[in-house]
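Sequence design from tokenized structure. All designs in this work follow the same two-part layout: the structure record, then the generated sequence. An example of the structure record is given first.
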């Protein structure tokens, strides 16, 4: 049995990227006092490298924006990880979609989220992204912030449950 991963909620884990395929795993941690872009925030759908206009920074607003984004096939269910609650999305690039952004290597991609240090995420090809969007606790008068845990399976989904089991072991402490 693996030990629990404990993270303080005063930090927003911008990208806990657990992946199978061409990428290796990375973790970025940034102070959670600034809701965007240091916490998870949705990218604009038009490839402009800006935040999605009019979308809140709470988990439900981000989940709804991504679920309604053209070029994506998204399922949304309620989630709880390590004491934080929100939503988990399974996101796939819609087969045959051709109106997205040019990919870094080849093909068309659809923008998803923005983070710190240039960690902006898009999806294309066969990749399945499981994106946990969890509400970060805050104090009165603090804008909402969302912690995002991203699990990428570049094989199309055959490893997503095993990778997600790691994310489900996280515990968050105040």
């Amino acid at each position: 049995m693996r030990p629990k991963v404990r993270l303080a909620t005063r930090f927003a884990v911008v990208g806990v990227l657990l992946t199978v395929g061409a990428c290796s795993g990375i973790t970025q941690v940034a102070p959670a006092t600034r809701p965007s872009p240091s916490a998870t925030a949705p990218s604009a759908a038009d490839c402009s490298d800006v935040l999605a206009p009019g979308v809140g920074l709470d988990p439900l607003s981000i989940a709804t924006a991504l679920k309604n984004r053209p070029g994506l096939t998204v399922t949304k269910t309620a989630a709880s990880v390590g004491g934080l609650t929100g939503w988990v999305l399974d996101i796939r690039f819609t087969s045959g979609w051709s109106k997205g952004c040019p990919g870094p290597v080849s093909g068309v991609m659809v923008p998803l989220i923005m983070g710190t240090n240039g960690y902006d995420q898009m999806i294309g090809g066969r990749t399945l992204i499981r994106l946990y969007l969890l509400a970060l606790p805050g104090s009165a008068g603090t804008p909402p912030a969302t912690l995002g845990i991203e699990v990428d399976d570049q094989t199309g989904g055959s490893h997503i449950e095993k990778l997600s089991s790691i994310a489900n072991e996280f515990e968050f402490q105040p």
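The radius of gyration is 15 Å. We note this feature because it recurs in several other targets discussed in the main text.
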